[in-house]
Amino acid sequence: MIAKPTLLSNQISSRPIMVLDSGSKSSLIDSQESSTTARDLISCFMSFSLAMSDVLVYNLWATDVGRYEAAGYDILRSIFTEYCRLFPRELNENQLEVSDLKKTALLLVLHDHDDGSSLNLMRETLVSDLEKLWNDVPKSVGSGYATNPVKLIEVFEISVTSLPHPKHRKAEFDLKIDALRDRFVESDLLKSDYSKAVPLEAFPTYVDLVWQDVCGARGSVGQNGTTSAGVFGVSRKDLVASYVCDNAYNSQYKSVMRTFNSWNSGVDRGRVIGRFGHSAER
């Protein structure tokens, strides 16, 4: 369902950057799948992307700005819906200080911007449309709804850029691509404010846990697209905390067991463990 992740090496960045390409909406679903199954698959991937990504990059044609279907606003609405479902505790100002909210960067890239139209005007149109989508999404907290739901700009850092046609204005396109790449390499987009704070050694486990829980919200998504009921029970903070605690416990447990096995082996050979009480307390 998703393309193979790409890892940008240290040759262009001081730290590795993983890029996950979801492809287009049509590439995520099979034409023979039911609309319900297709929506579930897309929602699963939206949830997965939100829980995984520091920056979400959304591509659309410059000429489609303001057009709901053509611009894929349904995908953006799904992103907001999944955010509200995944992180309900972050939706009520009464439960969490706005300054404590962990933002996700949302970068909108407008392709084939060649008609001389103002990027600022298109940015204003997009932000206005996104705010309407956000306001229309139900924001439940527990068994009710958020009494003072946070604003879109408090949970998503929205930026808009554009690219000219790659064939008709290739030189300018290449310069724009280089500038966009630099925004990632120079950490303009990869700020600590957006980081999911997942330790590198925890990443494989985190990915697995996120996917299991994301699919569990609608049930496990099988190879044939079937689903069964399930419940999403943890936030990204819970997942990270759970991993860190489990990792710390397992590390200490392994250390203790190595020492214990060494003692046990020595006793079996008739050796006396010197200063056992002192060593055991440590």
TrEMBL record:
The record's annotation in PROSITE patterns points to: G_GB1_RHD3
Q: From which domain of life does this come?
A: Eukaryota
Question: What protein family does this chain belong to?
Answer: Belongs to the TRAFAC class dynamin-like GTPase superfamily. GB1/RHD3 GTPase family.
Please identify the protein, giving its name as recorded.
GB1/RHD3-type G domain-containing protein
Annotated Gene Ontology cellular components are: endoplasmic reticulum
Q: What is the lineage of its organism?
A: Eukaryota, Rhodophyta, Bangiophyceae, Porphyridiales, Porphyridiaceae
* Record flagged with keyword Hydrolase: yes
| GO BP annotations listed | endoplasmic reticulum membrane fusion
Q: Which Pfam families match?
A: RHD3_GTPase (PF05879)
Coiled-coil features, chain-numbered ranges: none
Q: Which GO terms describe its molecular function?
A: GTP binding; GTPase activity
Keywords, sorted A to Z:
Endoplasmic reticulum, GTP-binding, Hydrolase, Membrane, Nucleotide-binding
Which Gene3D superfamilies has this protein been placed in?
P-loop containing nucleotide triphosphate hydrolases
Q: Has keyword Transcription regulation? A: no
Q: What positions does the domain GB1/RHD3-type G occupy?
A: 1-199
